[in-house]
Structure formats: C-alpha cells, structure tokens
Amino acid sequence: MSLHAKLKKLEDKAMAKGEHAVAAAVAHLLQDIDSIDRQINLVGALHEVGYLQNSLKPYWNAFRADEPAWIVRCLARLVIADHDYWALAALLGCDGPATIGIAMGKGFKSAATRQYERFDKPDVHVDTLYLSGMGRVLHPILEVGYDTREMINVDMGRARALSLDNAQWQSGDKLGTGGLSLSMQAKLPHGAWRSVWTPFTAQEAGGLT
Prior knowledge:
By secondary structure, this protein is an alpha+beta fold. The chain is 38% helix and 30% strand. The protein is built from 7 helices and 6 strands; from the N terminus they run αααααααββββββ. It has a 6-stranded antiparallel beta sheet with strand order 1-2-3-4-5-6. The longest helix is centred in the N-terminal third of the chain and has 15 residues. The radius of gyration is 17 Å and the shape is elongated.
C-alpha cells in the first residue's frame, strides 16, 4: 500500500473514531505530502490522541529519512512557540544525544542533568536545557530524556520559562526550587500534559522533577 493510500485510510479511521485533530492533520498533509511541518503535525497529533510506539513507528520511518533535519525543524518551532505540543511529541523516538547536541549547536545550554529509574525499563537520562537567562529566569526550557539502552527520546518537556527561587543563581549552580510557566510534556509509551504553572524542585544532582 502506498503512503498516500495509508494516509487516506488513517484519515477515514480517525474520522470514524472522532479523532478530529488527527483527521485534520492527515488531510492537510495529503495536500503536500513532502511538507516536514505537516509531517511533524501528524506525528504529534497521533501521539496526543494516544497512539503507542508500535503504531507511531511506521510514520517515524516514513518521515524521518533525514532525522537531523527533522530534529532541527522541531527545535526551531519549539524555540518560538509556547503551545506547539506536536513539535515536542514529534521528537519522541529520535536519537537522544543527537537531539541534545543539535539543540546545543543552536545555542541551548545545559542547566542540569539527572537520571531516573523506570519499573521495567532502562533508566532515563534527562538533560535540562535553556536558551537564555536573565537573572533567576531561564527561558525557554527544553528537557530531553532518553532511554539509556536504546538512546531514543522517551520523555520530552518544554516550558516558556523556569523562574528560580534563588535570585543569585548563576550558570553552574544547582537549580534548587522555583516554577515552570506554560509547560508541556510528552512521553513514551504514552502521556501528554500541559500546565499553566508547575512547581519545580531540582533533585540533588539538579534537574526538573
């Protein structure tokens, strides 16, 4: 089955299930199937409505022939938009260290790293990045969390800003406590969250909790 035919089938299925955002994203992509932004929108919409990794993978494979270019475009969107959940979710499944490296090449700096355990899966390494800082306010915030065995992104976060309680914070200090404004999080195998304000507490090694 051709990609066009698969997408048309997906559109019909999404309409039947009431997944109107997915149906709209597919219809938009079918008008310009080579548009990377429209591809990103579809992948993000699929994650948002609950598609699991095995269902997302065919679209990752179809659209990410040039994964670095995909990462670059997602990051470019996330730098300028506070509500672009689809660009955030579209980074799931990409190479984690590559995502961090590309982000840092675009000017992001590392504020902290941490690692957390999962019940039946490998640990997740998380790097908390920010583009610029003004005193105790860092913005925007990008969190890249990847599976330490497969090295793919499984936990992505983005916030407009992190406001730290420590007014004397300087680069290299532990982050301490504060709050995230307009934050989003996307996880594998599933999970999509948005929040206007989220309390923030760094663990001993630093990082968001």
